[in-house]
């Protein structure tokens, strides 16, 4: 059997603030799905565990030192497009976070209803609906 994964694993974070808002970022120009809003995160690299990949991505993208102890596995989504992807969504309520867009990307805190009105990355609308009950 070939030692090649059949799908990409992507990890993403729904970070809640004390008002039940979620941190979203806009995919930068030049990337796949540029301009769409998403939960911060990215691809799990070979040899990495998902939550380590998430801590790395959040540091790289938003200069947030995420405490892994605050992470809870929450939902997953799948997209069987050209490159099949399984996205693992975690939540965190880590306090005192001050994001910086390290790729020059925009970011915002949004209530679930506000987030639903944004143009979202493909798998995110379903994930947002599942998250809405966790906002309060
Ligand atoms: N990070 C992230 N990716 C998402 C979300 N929803 C969703 O459909 N995706 C898709 O999952 C894939 C993740 O790739 P990515 O581009 O974020 O990963 P990465 O930062 O490691 O990519 P790179 O290779 O450009 O550095 C993209 O096709 C992206 O559009 C989401 O909420 N967060």
TrEMBL record:
Per UniProt, which keywords does this protein have? DNA damage, DNA repair, DNA replication, Hydrolase, Magnesium, Metal-binding, Mutator protein
Which stretches are annotated as coiled coil?
none
Q: Which InterPro entries match?
A: MutT-like, Nudix_hydrolase, NUDIX_hydrolase-like_dom_sf, NUDIX_hydrolase_dom
Q: List the GO molecular function terms.
A: 8-oxo-7,8-dihydrodeoxyguanosine triphosphate pyrophosphatase activity; 8-oxo-7,8-dihydroguanosine triphosphate pyrophosphatase activity; 8-oxo-dGDP phosphatase activity; 8-oxo-GDP phosphatase activity; metal ion binding
Annotated Nudix hydrolase domain ranges read: 5-133
The coenzyme or cofactor needed here is: Mg(2+)
The superkingdom listed in its UniProt entry is Bacteria
What catalytic reaction does the record list? 8-oxo-dGTP + H2O = 8-oxo-dGMP + diphosphate + H(+); 8-oxo-GTP + H2O = 8-oxo-GMP + diphosphate + H(+)
Report what the protein is called: 8-oxo-dGTP diphosphatase
Q: Which organism is it from?
A: Aurantiacibacter arachoides
């Amino acid at each position: 059997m070939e030692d090649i994964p059949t799908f990409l694993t992507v990890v993403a974070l729904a970070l809640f603030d004390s008002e039940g808002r979620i941190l979203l970022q806009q995919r930068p120009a030049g990337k796949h799905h540029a301009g769409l809003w998403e939960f911060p995160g990215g691809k799990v690299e070979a040899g990495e565990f998902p939550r380590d990949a998430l801590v790395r991505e959040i540091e790289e993208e938003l200069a947030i030192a995420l405490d892994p102890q605050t992470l809870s596995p929450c939902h997953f989504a799948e997209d069987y497009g050209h490159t099949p992807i399984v996205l693992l969504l975690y939540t965190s309520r880590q306090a005192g976070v001050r994001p910086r867009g390290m790729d020059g990307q925009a970011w915002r805190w949004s209530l679930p209803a506000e987030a639903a009105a944004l143009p979202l990355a493909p798998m995110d609308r379903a994930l947002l609906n599942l998250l809405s009950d966790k906002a309060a």
